[in-house]
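Record passed on here:
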Amino acid sequence: MLTKLVSFVTIENVTINDAAPMEYEILDLESFLPYRLYRLADTVSREFSKIYKERHGLTRPEWRTLSGLAQRGTMTATELGEQSAMHKTKVSRAVAELERRRWLTRTPDEKDRRVEHLALTKAGLAAYREMVPLAKAFERELLAKLGKEQRVAIVRGVTALERALEG
C-alpha cells in the first residue's frame, strides 16, 4: 500500500491536518472486471472488423448501422444510436456513408420533419446478407477457442450481467 504524506494545508480559513499518513488503495486496472470486459469487447470487435473492412471497406459504426437496420428494419438515427450504443455523430457519419453507397434511404417523418426514417436498400440488404455467414463463422471460431463448459459459462455469465444491468 502506498502512503501519502502532506503537511498542514489552509484553504479558505479551513485547516486540514494531513500530517499523518493517509493510506489509500490502488486499483489494479488489469484485473478490474469492467476494464477487462471493455478490453475484451474492443479486441473482439477489432478482430471482427477486419472481416467487413476487407470485404466492403466498412468502419465499425457503418457495420453497426448496416446490421442494426437489417435486423430491425426502419429506424431513426436516434434509435440506431440507442440500439448500437454509438454517439450521434458516429451514427450520422455512418448513415451519410451508407447513403453515399446507396445502401440506405432516408424518409422524412410526416409529423416531424426533423426526424428521418432510415431503411436499407436492396444493395444494402444484399451486402448485409453476404456478411451474416461470415459473422456467424467468426463467432463459431471465437467460441471454438474455449471448451464446451467454458462456452456455456461465458454465454450464461454475459447474459446474467446484461440482465442485472438492465434494471
